[in-house]
Amino acid sequence: MGALAACTAVTVTNPFEVVKTRMQLHGELGTRGQSQSPFRVFGQTLKHEGVRGIQRGLGPAYIYQILLNGSRLGFYEPFRTSYNKLTGRRKEEVWALGSLAAGASSGVVGAVFGNPFFLVKARLQAYSPSLDPSQARHHYTSTLNGLSTIVKKEGVRGLWRGWDAAVLRTAMGSTVQLPAYNLAKTYLSNLKPEDTFAYNPALLIAGRPNNFLTYLSSSIFSGLCVCAVMQPADTALTRMYNQPVNVLPNGKTVGALYRGPLHCLYLTAKAEGPLAWYKGTTAHLARIAPHTVLTLVMNEVYLRWYTQAKSG
């Protein structure tokens, strides 16, 4: 159910991911280029590449979401209850530290499994015949072409290039996504009408755990938290995926610009200033907020449908 919900969400939000990816690569390490805004990048992409351009990377994005969010939503509860058991707590008890650890653990599992597809997705989205040509370091015609080209040029290990940055990014996002959602949902579900001010919108959802507005409000809060903590790691991941590759005398391939996510963040701050970590934040928020809302809300909806169908 979690994977189906995530694929529903990514269909809507993928254009924002394309814009965000291209903005994060703009002016990399001080290279010159025309100033970009989310609206300009979106407009230029749509004008020169059409609908297919703003939906670049959708295929591998589906596979990645199935692996990542299937793991994140599917393994979250088993991890959480296991951590509760290890610390002598009740299975149903919501423990803040345990929830954070469960979110990070489930996210890391999905990130490792899904790295090859996220790598291809990022490179497909970075390529553009109409924008800064310095960004187009890798050009693939499809997901399969991308995977086969990487294996041919970089070896099988190349499919997991940037996995450390992916783990950092996903762990940070997963650490807060479900815990923030559950925290907000629990708070709103336990809220009583007498605890709110008159004419407060919270009156519509107070004490109603299965109310659509409860799902929506909790998801929005979760999306904002995810974007706030994940943006620097997301920028590092995009740049590590897109960097050129050098082949050493022993045949091993290494990134030409960055040794790892922390090295990438250091060089980025040194050449462009620390605010460069937040390039594409507007586009990222435009993607992550509706993506989180759609993923979590549709997960609740699909679960309710499944439960109702199962009970007859």
Automatic annotation (TrEMBL):
It is found in: Mitochondrion inner membrane. One of its GO terms (cellular component) is mitochondrial inner membrane. Its main location: mitochondrion. Solcar repeats lie at residues 1-82, 94-187, 210-305. It is a multi-pass membrane protein. Pfam families: Mito_carr. Belongs to the mitochondrial carrier (TC 2.A.29) family. This is Mitochondrial carrier. The lineage of its organism: Eukaryota, Fungi, Dikarya, Basidiomycota, Ustilaginomycotina.
